[in-house]
Fold each of these.
Amino acid sequence: MKKNIKSFDLEDLKEELKSIGEKPFRAEQIFKWLFVEKVKEFEEMTNISKELRQKLEENYDICNFQIERKLVSKDGTIKYLFNIDGINNVETVLMKYKYGYSVCVSCQIGCKMGCKFCASTGIPFVRSLTPGEIVEQILAIEQDTGNRVSNVVFMGIGEPMDNFENIMKTIAILNNPKGFAIGARHMSVSTSGVVPRIYEFADRNAQSTLAISLHSPNNETRSSMMPVNKAYPIEELMKACKYYMEKTNRRISFEYALSKGYNDSIEDAEKLSQLFHKTLGHLNLVHVNLIPINKIENGAYDQSSIESIMKFRDYLNSKGITATIRRELGSDIEAACGQLRRKNLKTEEAN
Ligand code: SAH
């Protein structure tokens, strides 16, 4: 199989070109053609000799996704279903905010984590995506809409920490000032709580935001929602979060999807506040993102009322914990949190 040319960061591309007997300065030209000019064919790289273009064509895949389906929400959110390699599909979402455009990328085909409330759980895991395949989700959307993407969240299908090296590489490619130039702080990586990778993320001094899908302060409840909690219970997760905060002095965003009668009572808010106070300490580095849970097909979790969510938020705020309610975008096209499931006829049939 040909290597994906979009999977190389600039430094790797220089090495790669050296290895095929080419001058490293060509790497910068190619990098710019790919990520600044956003060309779809090697042929369009006009300052590169015909011979080299041919060599690239023969040895590398330029990886252009086909848009299989595109759904536009009333609020402007767009959900894309891409055919990525003739067989597999991924879903990606474009959202418009006051500050610009944000893309929610998928990092795996399917997901192994098995969270009970998430639509991605119903589909079989196939494989992790390569850096080029994650970068291409953003490129394809920029090409389709003509908009420049300024923020990226790794919150689509898959567990980023289960595809760790490729995610770190993707961040480096997107961050490179000679390409997309997306600020590392404008990227967020969300994890269900794969503890060893949280330590590693801290040690690599990644400047991107870490988001933790917490959803409950209680091990029993959390394990019933998220099997990963059985391997890495809340105490261990909090220890890793504390390490991250002390090592990086960066804020962690705790995701908390509220479900009626399940994790949305004032007692839950109280326990959550105590958990942060007792195990983390650094409350200035805690941000809680409250999300009304999205009910999935045949799902057991009903959405909390906005009143309960506001009470939950007010309680946390009164205890010195910053908590905000996340505005839901794209729910009418099943593009909101937890609704992605690479829908198409082939996978529907296979299920
Ligand atoms: N695997 C990673 C990233 C993908 S999920 C993680 O678990 O963090 C992105 C976010 O959507 C997570 O916070 C996840 O818990 C949340 N989510 C999943 N299903 C949801 C649902 N039905 N309603 C609200 N949020 C959901």
Amino acid sequence: MIAALIWDVDGTMAETERDGHRVAFNLAFEALGLAWRWDEEHYGALLCITGGRERLLHDMALRGDAPTLAEERMRLAGELHRRKNAFYVEIVQAGVIPLRAGVRELIDEAAAAGLRQGIATTTSRSNLQALLQRQLGAGWSARFSAVVCGEDVLVKKPDPQVYRLTLQALGLPPLQTVALEDSPAGVEAARLADVPVVVTRSVYFAHDTVLGVLAIGPGLHSHLGWRPDVADGMPNGRVTLNYLQAWHDRMELVSHQQ
Ligand code: XBP
Ligand code: MG
């Protein structure tokens, strides 16, 4: 039996990247008088680097107009990231980034069923707090018995540390849990920690090859379009705990290329 759900945040709980983090990075560039702007396509390519500060440093290494000294780049990345997170908090506090359909329902269902829930994210704690406080209300943290963020790990996803720390905090072995993820880096992190993964495809990772997961589908809002198809005899509608349990029972790891 599944004893806990482990939630990824960006892309899985909410589509935060294109209209949240990306917009906030551009506002930070503007605030510091930089002409840099990340369009939707370029930002999608940059998502192969997890962590906002790491993403900035990666982009600086590729462009000709970034500071040449490593020290100077680090300082600039730190300042941009600080400002970007402040802008991001303003954006999510305005309520323009909703939870993905079916997320709230599954969180509520898992809580009612007595499952433990954890969060394993690469994003900064301030970003997570702002998003979940706005979307789930002031009591959001009572829903989660483990919350591990970017600041809590030495190495970000695809390194498994964030999942290992979440498992420790939950006090459960990996096979009694299921991770909900959207990105190849997130799937790799969970798999390296032996956590079975269910993938909800997000805007930026709609077509990526995904290997060795319990199931993959378009989102928690509908049982349609999922592989493997376990809907026979199940109620139609959103992806419920029964679906997660059915995939977990099979423990048949599927691969998917689109
Ligand atoms: C996804 C990420 C994050 C955000 C930005 O995290 O890669 O780095 O893009 O976060 P996840 P920060 O899918 O694990 O939730 O700027 O706060 O680093
Ligand atoms: Mg994600």
Amino acid sequence: MANDILIIHIKGLVQVRENQVSYVAGSAMANLPVLSDAYLYISDGRITDYGKMDQLPPLSADEVIDATGRFVFPSFVDSHTHLVFAATREEEFVMKIKGASYAEIAAKGGGILNSAKKLQQASEDELLEKTMERAHEIIRLGTGAVEIKSGYGLTVKDELKMLRVARKIGAQTPLTVKTTFLGAHAVPSGIKKADYLKQVIDEMIPAVAAEKLADYIDVFCEEGFFSMDETEQVVETGKKFGMKPRIHANQLHRSGGVQVGVKTNALSVDHLENIGNEEIQLLKGTHTMPTALPAAAFFLNLLFPPARKMIEEGLPLAIASDYNPGSSPTGNMQLMLSLACIKMKMTPEEAINAVTINTACALELSESLGSITRGKTANIFITQPIPSVAYIPYHIGNQVIEHVILKGRIVD
Ligand code: NIG
Ligand code: FE
């Protein structure tokens, strides 16, 4: 295995940031620095040097890659997924096509509770095997770091099982993994919400913390799921146990999720299909990263977050996949770029910033990932020969990535 890798004749080295930035916001999102006719030098897992080909110093490398006609990107950082699940839900997809509503599907045992039932029946090994396949799938699609949530367990033992699987993905693949406890995703059947919340607060959070299984805590703040007050209560308990908040906010209604997120100093508020000017103003000047999940909006035929307005108001915007069996059965970040451009009217440059440096910031990883910067972890991908950066979102639904390097190693 090569330790030092030199990539030469790069048509465009994308997202080169000489100076460390933690995120980009507002009009700065339109700026995506690209170095043309470049080289990139990777040693001991890090980006050690880059520059123009005509200034290539004599460098020794175990492996030299000729990237003529190809672009090199920092790997995508996917800051919101539910990668651990036991079964897909295409039967609900078909029911929806035929006109069934969310409530009708839920009444027939569908939705989050359907996923919970199947996950409860699966062993940790089975779950790991399935999740591992998805992990390799997203690696091939250009993702180098991923956040993984629990929330399909809904019992102490099954939430722990999910988070252990998520941690194993971090240990057994080259992906950088951050984990999030989402016990408050739905109320299991046969138990009162107040009793379930008590379980989340008194049993699940301490148990998750005892095994150090979660970096973050999340709540599905939504009508019919968890209210603003309930969200705040869960999140504040999580904070006491060292888990910083990130919140499922404003997906189906103006749920108040953004308000709770800002109040509790959440790292991110995710979804945002239903936000107005009030939420946008509230997010200004905070440390809370607004995050759009355009595949979920697309899959459920929802309105898309008002990205243009948010950017015009000076906010940063991150974009993640929300990979899950119910509302976004894909972790393809190249597709997120297309949806961002087509459905949210973002430019390719803005969209690429949203899936690299801004998602890295949302996961507290922007010191090590999210851009081509000396000293950062060498998580990159090399495209096929393509005409331009804009070609990636333009070439909808296609794989344009040829090689992946994670933590300085070529991934087969
Ligand atoms: O982010 N919104 C809530 N939770 C997930 C998936 C829900 C599901 O499994 O149906 C989401 O869309
Ligand atoms: Fe989600």
Amino acid sequence: MVRIKSKEKIRAIEKSGGIIAEIFQGLQNQIRPSTTTLKLERWIGDFIRKKGARSAFKGYRGYPAEACISVNEEVVHGIPSTRELREGDIVSIDVGVQLDGFYADAAITFPVGKISAEKERLIEVTRKALYEGMKQVRIGNRVGDVSSAIQRYVEHHGYSVVRTLFGHGVGEALHEDPVVPNFGRVGQGEKLQEGMVLAIEPMVNQGEAEVKVLPNKWTVITADGSLSAHFEHSVALVDGGLKVLTNWEGADG
Ligand code: MF3
Ligand code: CO
């Protein structure tokens, strides 16, 4: 069941989202060759605590860390470790924050130092695919309009969308209805309604769509070992239009 939120609740979710936006701004200076994903995790955890908030991920179905940090062929749910980042890597950082019972969720793929043109392109197409999906968030549209806009944009650029992981409703829990796939058909699925809050999150593989899960039971990697990128915003449908609640950049894409 979709939980429609009042404007007041949406403002509360936006507070959590604002903390995530600040984290992503601060992370720009933390991400550099030879730092470890564990150092990034600690920086994020400290930031969340300083704000009086909590990680929405730690303990969720037993997830062991405060952020998900996924490098290169890792798609999502990378567990922070002593692994060092290297010049030319790409690193996807996914952060969920809970403040006063309200949840927001967002992700960005960052370059580590100077990266290849091929990696730049994957990152840029994934970021723009998110904005293509967000543009469909309006009264009269359905979830399938968001999904198909993402899929079309990604496939047009020769990449594939992961089909076993989805975006989702968010706000009073980390995961709420409806499910927001990154593939689908125009005019299908749940109607978008005033007061809906969605986490839209394309996961885009350079190669094939198939993924597998590492023996740690969490980390999802591409089955063919190709690179993967991930961008996510939590957004609301307010006054008939889109409101970005995790504003890690100007919301124009
Ligand atoms: N943004 C991811 C999601 O929506 C993060 C979940 S990771 C977990 O599923 F650690 F919380 F499980
Ligand atoms: Co999410």
